[in-house]
Design goal:
The protein has about 80 residues and is of the alpha+beta class. The chain has helices at about 25-35, 35-45, 75-80; strands spanning about 1-10, 10-20, 55-60. The protein starts with a strand and ends with a helix.
Length: about 80
């Protein structure tokens, strides 16, 4: 998926389009349940920063189905919570 991501650096809000691989297709679900994707985005944006990191996924721009999961979305949410 391509997602529009907003983040703060030095008190200025920046936006960037980034790729995301996740079973979730809503921005709030990616933010809440997909820690692996959020960690990857965080590492890509804040390479050496040790301060507080604020990342917001604003919207999903486009989707491309790569594969299907054998678990349902609810099962994934239970696993990650």
């Amino acid at each position: 998926m391509s997602a529009r991501v907003a983040f703060k650096k030095k008190k200025v809000v920046h936006e960037r389009v980034m790729w995301v691989v996740s079973v979730y297709d809503k921005p709030i679900d990616i933010h809440r349940y997909d820690k692996h994707t959020m960690h990857r985005i965080e590492q890509e944006i804040y390479k050496n920063a040790s301060s507080e990191k604020h990342i917001i996924i604003r919207e999903i721009i486009d989707k491309k189905i790569v594969s299907y999961s054998t678990l349902s979305i609810d099962d994934h949410k239970r696993q990650n919570h």
